[in-house]
Amino acid sequence: MASPFSRFRFATAAVVSFAAGVYFASAMDWTRISWAQPRTARPATVAGGPGTPAGTGSFADIAERVTPAVVAVKTTSNSRPRVQMRGRVPQGMEDFLEQFDPPARQQRGEGSGFIYSPDGYIITNNHVVADADQVSVTLSDGRTFKAKVVGTDSTTDVAVVRIDAKGLPTIPVGNDEAARIGDWVLAIGNPLGLEFTVTAGIISAKGRGAEVSPSRGSFNISDFIQTDAAINPGNSGGPLVNLRGEVIGLNSAIASQTGFYSGYGFAIPVSLVRNIAEDLIKDGRVRLPVMGVSVTPVDPEDAGINGLAKVTGVKVMGYNPPDGGPAKAAGIEVGDVIVAVDGRPVDRVSALQRIVRSRRVGDVVPVEVRRFGTKKEFRVKLVEAEALARVSAAPGAAPEETAAGRTAGKLGITVEPLPTELADRLKLGGGRGVFVTKVAEDGPARDKIAAGGDVVLEVLYPAPRRAVKSVGDLQAAVGALREGDYVSLLVQSVDPRVEPRVVNIRLGS
Question: Which of these is catalytic: 77, 112, 127, 223?
């Protein structure tokens, strides 16, 4: 039998051997590739530096200040079968119109937002509220308000809603252009129904473009901040905040095959968000400035033939509309490489979008290009995207050149450019009319206009009488109206046998 002293020596040798094994395994990096190690927890404090809030180095202090200005957005969409139009659907149109029959059930959605002004304006994502019939907002103190959609913009995925409240807390607006890759950020929102959740990460990249954009369209803007702060469904519309407690982005999308957080989230830069929000608050719609060109990233061959020292700039592939536009009128040619606009370098498509979007319709901006190695400068007058959309939507235009459908919020209807097939059937030339795809159950147009069954042709009142050739035309006509005002519309049924009718609507009724 072994003595107690022998057993002690054996145990001691075993401990020493184990410790030595761990040491050598660590030195040779065997532990990293052999064990499924959990992610190391981030520290609760951040080292002081230029980006650290004065007097604090804690995420908790930032969250405590910012969270009161974050809101939970809940939406309801009241869907019902479209039965009222079945008796007068023209022969051959049944299959076309069937796509606009909503399911006979109520759909609910959740998202986030942040308070933009003390008098109740709240910024969120377009995709959170665009199809909603009812919107409610819950504050961090538990109060819930019914919200009105002030305006939405599908090209940037930005929307503004408003609640009837005063003296609300807000988040300071920061400078997203000054933010650097590697800076700490916080994402605050309501992921998966977990209200007012705070996650931390860094800025992983900037200027992410169409490769991560969930939408595709001629005028859609893609210029995202990428972050590894956890963003999940429900975070949409919430703020991305820097260590000064300033919002620098609007959380909008995630890159995931499952629909849940996989390490990559994307936010719209706040400089773009602010411009859109101001337009929506002022006019109820966005006047999107454009140069009238279609562009693509530069490849090494493009850079080489133009004598560029590095692969930078964007190449002009065509015009929008195809037969002209401001860029063509200024002298820019297909094949030119745009390297600077308004004195600012253009290294990618998203940079061009950001620069142009920072200006206003009617502004004249200097554009520097390389044409087979020769430097050329032009002055381009920016025009409104809607104006180009009206031209593009004329008969013969490609479907992808038309503008996306948008909600005329005050009327409670959603419209889109008239499909070519329907325009031909109704003999509506010149891009005349917009097609009604949705009517809010509690909106002023209920029982007066039929979703999937009507086309708005003209605004008869208020004066002046005007034709409706685009979504923007209808939005502009009702943008200045208030609750209690009247609007008179000339409406055409999708059945060509039915004569156009006058529909009078009182807003807010």
Answer: 127
Q: Alpha carbon of 355 to those of 223, 271, 291, 343, 346: distances in Å?
A: 11, 11, 11, 10, 8
108 Cβ contact list (under 8 Å, min separation 6): 74, 75, 76, 77
Q: 292-381 and 400-506: same fold?
A: yes
Active-site hit among 131, 133, 153, 157? 157
Pair 75, 207: CB distance under 8 Å: no
Q: Is 236 a catalytic residue?
A: yes
CATH architecture of 48-286: Beta Barrel (2.40)
- pTM of the model as a whole: 0.60
- Does 140 qualify as catalytic in the annotation? no
Active site residue 493: no
Superfamily of domain 400-506: PDZ domain (2.30.42.10)
| Distance from C-alpha of 437 to C-alpha of 425, rounded to nearest angstrom | 17
**Positions of E strands within 184-262:** 184-189, 197-208, 224-227, 239-241, 247-254
One pLDDT digit (tens) per residue for the chain, 509 residues: 555 545 545 455 554 454 444 344 444 333 332 222 233 333 334 444 444 444 445 899 999 999 999 999 999 987 554 444 444 555 556 566 666 665 556 788 889 999 999 999 999 999 899 878 899 999 999 999 999 999 998 888 899 999 999 999 999 999 998 999 999 999 999 888 788 889 999 999 988 765 555 444 445 666 789 999 888 888 889 999 999 999 999 998 775 556 666 678 889 999 889 989 998 998 888 888 889 888 888 888 888 988 899 999 999 888 877 667 899 999 998 889 999 999 999 998 888 988 998 888 899 999 999 998 899 999 999 998 765 554 433 333 333 333 334 555 678 888 888 888 888 888 887 778 999 988 888 788 888 899 888 999 988 888 788 888 887 788 878 877 878 888 888 999 998 888 888 888 888 76
How far lies 133's CA from each of 109, 354, 441, in Å? 11, 32, 7
Which residue in the list 236, 252, 470, 493 is annotated as catalytic? Answer: 236
> Could you name the CATH architecture of 292-381?
Roll (2.30)
